[in-house]
UniProtKB/TrEMBL annotation:
Biased composition annotated in UniProt, kind: Basic and acidic residues: 17-31
Superkingdom of source: Bacteria
Protein name: Uncharacterized protein
Biological source species: Streptomyces spectabilis
Region Disordered, annotated ranges: 17-39
Amino acid sequence: MVNYYGSITVDYERELAQLDDQGHRPLRTVDTDEPGAVP
């Protein structure tokens, strides 16, 4: 089933800028204040 009601806007330049040298993007960022975070 395909829903044609709505759209998602993606800023490709911003998304590509988040990639590292190997082309991977971290799944989430960890704040250093977060318990269990490794500095």
